[in-house]
Amino acid sequence: MEEEDQRKVTDLVMELVRRLLSQQNPQNPTPNHPHFSQSLRYAFRILSSRLTPSVFPDSDAIAESIKRRLATQGKSSDALTFADLYTKFASKNGPGSVNNKWAVLYLLKIISEDRKNAVNGMDSSVFLPNLGLNDDETGNDSRVFNGKENRDKGLKNGVLLVSKGPENLREISFREFENLVKDENDVTEEVLVRDVLYACQGIDGKKVKGYISENMNSFPAEDVGTVGQAFCAALQDELSEYYKLLAVLEAQSMNPIPLVSEKASPGNYLSLRRLSVWFSEPMVKMRLMAVLVDKCKALRGGAMAGAIHLHAQHGDPIVHDFMRRLLRRVCSPLFEMVRSWVLEGVLEDIFAEFFIVGQPVKAESLWREGYRLHAGMLPLFISQSIAQCIQRTGKSINFLRFCCDDRGWADAATEAVAAAGVTTRRGALGYGETDALESLVIEAAERIDKHLLDVIYKRYKFKEHCLAIKRYLLLGQGDFVQYLMDIVGPELSEPANTISSFKLAGLLESAIRSSNAQYDDPDILDRLRVKMMPHGTGDRGWDVFSLEYDARVPLDTVFTESVMTRYLRIFNFLWKLRRVEHAVIGAWKTMKPNCITSHVYTKLQRAVKMQFLSTLRRCQVLWDEMNHFVTNLQYYIMFEVLEVSWSNFSNEMEVAKDLDDLLAAHEKYLHSIVEKSLLVERSQTLYKSLFVLFDLIMQFRSHADRLYEGIHELQARTVESSSNSQDKNKPRKTKDKSPEPGSWVSEGRKALTQRASEFLQNMGQDLGALATEYKSLLEGFLALLPVQQHIDLKFLLFRLDFTEFYTRQHANV
């Protein structure tokens, strides 16, 4: 259907052109004639033009204008005839009538004005061929326009001949000169003006081609986002103003350009010089818009706003004002996103234009992974620090909303708006108001972050939970740890696969009730649990036992799974150290001087006595060295590492301004403990050497127990041997029982002494070998301490070797 309508329109235009041409020259109007084809293209170019008349489309007003014009020209009868015809024309409605009556009247008026202009001297070649002009209408002076034949009469050998008659005025000479110039030039100024106006609409003229409009039309119209849509709307408004100017200029171009001989008049005619003045500012804007469209084709959102912002840094006031006006429109959606995010925590970004990107995550990962900055979408007029502040503020609101189930942030946001002096309505912020934006963001961030920390500290008792972790996972509650180790020791000595976690949980509960831990908050104690780590077939309970702390939402934002894994590593190290300390103390309880040792010493022979004293002395000296090492290491860990790190962490908690500061302070606290406790990667050699020393100390505990068990057995055999000697002098009432073969008593006192000598000799050798290995490992451990990066590890060396005993010993070797 559309193709059929288009064909009808084409046929009507062709018929109109043919009739107009037939009135001037009946021989021309054949479709194959070049003049007909040229006129037809010209007609289509006019009909496809986007120019609109500069008058209001009122058919009655046009009709009145035509009647007044006819009346002023002395054609009253024609005016009455026109009024009668117009009344009949206007009353026609329905099928077969003309809908756009105003356009028909306007066309007739323009054709009439064209005839008048032709009479007054305008070259009719710039328009469609008009109705024929007879000599009666033009008068005798029309010889200037009567064709080349008349003009040739005044020319001789290229010289203009002017007679001295009264009609040969100076202005006629100028007109003859003008016609001569028109004959010598293919393009007149009127044609160029009209072509320029067409080109400015994107319509190709005879000599001028359009470019700007084609470049504008190449901008993608769909899926450009809200910022792109605002950019398109701003461009459309500028183009609308541009087309209004073209409409005014088109109206002026209809007026003839005065001749050189005529006096300068302020008439609304349009020459190329005047056109260049009119287009001086619009062309700057159009070229700039063309550049912006070309630059922003592949951009969106904040990246598009930043690219446009680069062109606003210009010294030309016209360009600067135009770009600020354009950017205020373009950045309006972006500033609205900032306002919604900072004050409401709402991320309205359907087309992925904002410099903050959200992604679905679990509640414990909301703060760390839920929102991130997209540097590619950050416009240049928003600094990195303000962007981070914007991100943190909206993130704090969502953290309070989803993780803390809190609504107090709304009051904080309202206070921030009042303090910043801005309104909460849409469009309150825009480009060029960076100071107001920064003020709003800073005020909102300060109040919302403060409210968030208050909720974390007071409602969720963050400090109390941190202290509980220090007491139980970092073994800071001494009485609880000591009692727990005493009651779980026998159970943990069994193979790991035979230990019941329920029984260990009961022992943990007993340790809590039997220590000052029972006075802690029940919520904290409920979070403390026993955890058995994965184990192999040869592992003992000591190797797999650990404690864990259940950090729930929102505390699991700080105590994440990876953080609790590091706490577990620290607990295992401290638990091993406490076990070694417990073993050293247990060895001392076994080795302390007692009457049994003294009694055995008095009953032994001289040679065995010296051997006995040598073995005891070696055991005591080795215990002293191990006790010195364990005591100073324990002091270093508990006071130089844990307490100092806790003190620094407490101070940083007090000055933290937002949750990021709190997370950074806790991360620093945990890293300090891990680094000073030799748990970092670069301290693995030192860490392994330390655990070998721990194993040697546990071996020493077993050797010491075996030595004193042997001494106790020797004392018992000595007493039994003495009793048997006394019984020999008494009469036997019953038959003695024969002693067991192979026992010390059965072999008599001599055999008992020999067995004691062998036992002490073997123990002395074992202790000597253990002492040698321990000394070698300890010297290697001390040699590694000075090369460690952390200064506190060098202080550990000073504590272990404050008398320079090991240094002098190593020098002597």
Automatic annotation (TrEMBL):
The protein's name: Gamma-tubulin complex component 3
Keyword Cytoplasm carried by entry: yes
GO annotation, biological process: cytoplasmic microtubule organization; meiotic cell cycle; microtubule nucleation; mitotic cell cycle; spindle assembly
Entry's Gene Ontology molecular function annotations: gamma-tubulin binding; microtubule minus-end binding
Keyword Lipid biosynthesis: no
InterPro entries xref list: GCP, GCP_C, GCP_C_sf, GCP_N
One protein family per Pfam: GCP_N_terminal
